[in-house]
Amino acid sequence: MRKGVTVRGVCAADKEFWLSLDKHISPAEFDKKAEDKRGYVLFADGEPAGILRYNLFWDNTPFCTMLYIGEGYRRKGYGAELLDFWEKEMAAAGYDFVLTSTRADEEAQNFYRALGYRDCGSLILSGQPTEIFLCKNLR
Question: Is the pTM of this model over 0.85?
């Protein structure tokens, strides 16, 4: 990790910052993520700059459900650093494989592919863009 960048597990004190970026979970669900330690906050020069949350797909496979870097910090490598940190944490916990997904109409698919993720499926819901699933082996 480059100088000035740190990552730590999410905690209750991160709630206001987290919910300012993550519009897809309720305050109660944030509390659960913090309690279960299923997320990380990235800091750039001491300032919170991004978040990553995950769960266990099928109760046994780490699945990144949200990676979000704040507006002023995008396209500077912070997302890649946060994802790399998470992958190393998951490998250290004994996982061999991770998943994520993104909508087909979003640019994030290119970000993940550039970092070694490969397409591994999709979900089609009526009236919504296709959700692309991407996977990466950690070992």
Answer: yes
